[in-house]
Amino acid sequence: MLAKLATDGACTAGELGSPFESAQPTISRHIKVLEKAGLVQREIDGRVHRFRLVRRPLDEAETWIKRHTQFWESTLERLEGFVRNSNETKDRP
């Protein structure tokens, strides 16, 4: 659903549910979860409800993931260097 909103822009519940083989109540529950998470915003025009993606939480998550990925990659590189150095020291007579 998020991918569809990201590529297509605002969609109705029916449009969001069309790629899935789920009943409309199931689709509605999924949309409500996305709304509660702050990832989707509902716009009401009469009887038509359109949903649009709220990118900020995803951008914040991406920033967090990148920061932690960099941290762990550098930590693992240092650990690898330590293990190699330890093994080289062990191998010396």
Overview of the molecule:
The protein is α+β, with helices and mostly antiparallel strands and 93 residues long. It has two domains: 52 residues, Arc Repressor Mutant, subunit A; 39 residues. Helices cover 66% and strands 15% of the residues. The protein is built from four helices and three strands, in the order H-E-H-H-E-E-H. A three-stranded antiparallel beta sheet has the order 1-3-2. A hairpin with a 2-residue loop joins strand 2 and strand 3. The longest helix is centred in the C-terminal third of the chain and has 36 residues. The protein is elongated, with a radius of gyration of 23 Å. The protein starts with a helix and ends with a helix.
Secondary structure elements and pairings:
Blueprint: H1 2-8, E1 11-12, H2 13-17, H3 24-36, E2 40-45, E3 48-53, H4 56-91
Antiparallel strand pairs: 1-3, 2-3
